[in-house]
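stage 2 :: seqdesign
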């Protein structure tokens, strides 16, 4: 590899609602939401022994900025709201990991709004449940399914590109046979088509309700669904205060599966990590899943909570460089940055070992037919400086280094370490902290020259990851604006070979696009993150999903 630097060998609200309202009004909560260091009051008061088994309190660093997965700039916490409030036609069965954690099975499906489906070479036909209703009692019909799919392929941006990942591109592909039967016509052989119907985007909306709030300027009713749910899912939003909390109530008429055990979910936004940990240790909070890794390690070692760590499926944390913004349009500059990243310091000081390194593969290691896999760069400051000089920047340059403040517990220390390391070769960076609610919008502008981000592919296939992140169609998550006809040809060839069963071509194509990604290095993989979840010992039923968020439907809470 030219220019390579050194190598190395995832049930009832408070019985006394007055206690909860009093708590929400308290000055302590205002301080807590602001991240102040305070003495935390008991959240549950006299109701602790009475109604808590039916209510789950979740605390996290950030919350949703949109309740609609089709919305513009919907952030990752928004996936959680959509997943639990909307149904899809189908979902995945579970399998057990060696550590006993239930983990979605990408090759096995279960029914949700569909009661059955059949597939042939030209189409898939879904028969809907006849007893399913939306939250307002309106029956779910095939017309709602078609409208929802038409919406997903038409609104543009993230949802439309996600549908295209499974060759779902045109409203004409979705054909209503009768009120309870819909056919999805294929426009090309694609092994991603059926699994793409089980992700978060093809949610089924109450079309009649949404259309009441649509306008000529907003024909899909996105303004309404940003703050209101219109689904048939297991939970419905009772109250949402952006930046503070989301309160869900169970939909007792849900027909998509067994009725959940938890009646009410309170998801409170607590920006300060120390306060989140204190809430868990006091027993006031039931679950948190974005503490600093140092805290997860300490809580795990203390043994008082259940700590589950699961590698992101098809995911990496990375340093990205916008290849349209000088000097990052120069491959030598990108390779210099790759040589200057303090990889092991990040694993040790930020991740505390709760991550799988994606760097330092042996120089003679063959490329695997897999993703993610480690590249062969390690920290080599002398080589980094030489590459930067060769690129024409012997004295370095100035730039900004951006991150999502919604996940600051990981992103900020990464950026500080990278800033310090790059300074040693003359690259002077100003750290740019972007509020979590704005992160997706800023990503979509593709103006940030240097940044850290995480991406995990919902469909666990290498070609899916690369279609999203490296293909010249320049989707949202091609955050580098990387364009390469050679890369596009390899990704397209892998997709075609997968659909036709041509194993030899598939393997060669995957190895080819991985090699090219590491040669051009528009993004630098750091590590494969773990989803770390801390729960009270009486909470069970956690399942790992491709979207990395909580599925409330299977959670159970003992006395």
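stage 2 :: out
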């Amino acid at each position: 590899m030219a220019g390579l630097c050194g190598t190395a060998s995832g049930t009832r609200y408070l019985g006394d609602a007055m206690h909860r309202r009093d708590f929400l009004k308290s000055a302590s909560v205002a301080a807590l939401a602001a991240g102040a260091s305070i003495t935390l009051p008991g959240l549950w008061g006299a109701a602790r022994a009475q109604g808590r088994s039916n209510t789950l309190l979740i605390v996290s660093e950030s919350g949703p900025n949109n309740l609609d997965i089709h919305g513009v700039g919907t952030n990752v916490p928004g996936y959680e709201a959509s997943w639990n409030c909307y149904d899809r036609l189908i979902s995945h069965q579970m399998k057990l990991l060696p550590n006993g954690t239930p983990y979605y099975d990408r090759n096995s499906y279960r029914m949700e709004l569909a009661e059955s489906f059949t597939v042939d070479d030209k189409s898939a036909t879904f028969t809907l449940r006849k007893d399913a209703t939306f939250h307002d009692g309106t029956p779910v019909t095939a017309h709602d399914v078609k409208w929802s799919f038409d919406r997903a392929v038409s609104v543009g941006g993230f949802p439309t590109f996600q549908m295209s990942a499974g060759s779902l591109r045109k409203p004409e592909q979705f054909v209503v046979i009768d009120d309870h039967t819909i056919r999805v016509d294929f426009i090309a052989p694609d092994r991603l088509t059926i699994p793409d119907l089980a992700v978060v985007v093809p949610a089924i909306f109450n079309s009649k309700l949404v259309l009441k709030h649509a306008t000529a300027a907003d024909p899909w009713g996105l303004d309404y669904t940003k703050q209101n749910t219109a689904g048939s899912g297991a939970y419905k939003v009772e109250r949402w205060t952006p930046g503070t909390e989301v309160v869900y109530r169970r939909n007792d008429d849900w027909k998509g599966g067994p009725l959940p055990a938890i009646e009410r979910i309170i998801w409170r936004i607590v920006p300060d990590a120390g306060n989140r940990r204190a809430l868990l240790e006091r027993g006031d909070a039931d679950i948190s899943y974005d503490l600093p890794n140092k805290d997860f390690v300490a809580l795990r070692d203390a043994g008082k909570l259940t700590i589950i760590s699961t590698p992101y499926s098809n995911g990496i944390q990375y340093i990205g460089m916008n290849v349209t913004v000088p000097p990052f349009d120069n491959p030598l500059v990108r390779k210099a940055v790759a040589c200057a990243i303090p990889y092991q310091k990040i694993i040790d000081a930020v991740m505390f070992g709760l991550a799988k390194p994606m760097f330092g593969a042996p120089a003679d290691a063959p490329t695997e037919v897999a993703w993610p896999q480690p590249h062969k760069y390690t920290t080599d400051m002398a080589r980094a400086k030489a590459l930067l000089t060769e690129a024409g920047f012997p004295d370095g340059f100035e730039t900004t280094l951006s991150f999502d403040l919604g996940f600051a517990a990981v992103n900020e220390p990464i950026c500080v370490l990278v800033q310090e390391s790059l300074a040693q070769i003359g690259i002077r960076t100003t750290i740019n902290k972007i509020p979590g609610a704005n992160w997706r919008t800023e990503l979509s502008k593709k103006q940030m020259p240097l940044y850290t981000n995480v991406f995990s592919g919902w469909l666990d296939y290498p070609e899916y990851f690369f279609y999203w992140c490296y293909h010249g169609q320049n989707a949202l998550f091609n955050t580098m604006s990387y364009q390469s006809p050679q890369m596009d040809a390899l990704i397209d060839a892998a997709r075609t070979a997968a659909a036709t069963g041509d194993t030899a071509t598939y393997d060669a194509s995957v190895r080819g696009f991985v090699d090219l990604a590491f040669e051009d290095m528009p993004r630098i993989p750091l590590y494969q993150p773990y989803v770390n979840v801390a729960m009270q010992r009486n909470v069970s039923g956690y399942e790992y999903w491709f979207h990395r968020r909580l599925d409330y439907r299977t959670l159970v809470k003992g006395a």
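stage 3 :: structure notes
- The two ends are 58 Å apart (CA to CA).
- The longest helix spans residues 503-520.
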